[in-house]
Amino acid sequence: MTPTELKQARQSLGLSTAQLAALLDTDPQTIRRMEQSESASTFRTPAPRMVRLIRAYLDGYRPTDWPKGDDK
Questions:
Q1: Which structural domain range is residue 47 located in?
Q2: pTM above 0.85, yes or no
Q3: Which of these, 13, 21, 34, 49, could form a disulfide with 28 (CB 3.0-4.6 Å)?
Q4: For the chain, how many structural domains are there in total?
Q5: Tens-binned pLDDT, residue by residue, of the chain (72 aa)
Q6: Distances in Å between the alpha carbon of 41 and those of 25, 33, 50, 55?
């Protein structure tokens, strides 16, 4: 998943970086680094498990701890 695809996925799910980070058991800074250009010195590649979860969320899966309402 490219940085652009990750950011588009997060935005289409209506999630903030903090919300996605919580769902993926990481921190918001890591999400921001994964959304950066691959040429950025702090860029991080998403782990395969993270990509699988994001794709599941895009397919409609919602875990019990999915953010409710407008708490971005």
A1: 3-58
A2: yes
A3: 21
A4: 1
A5: 999 999 999 999 999 999 999 999 999 999 999 999 889 898 989 999 999 999 999 999 999 999 987 544
A6: 23, 9, 21, 26
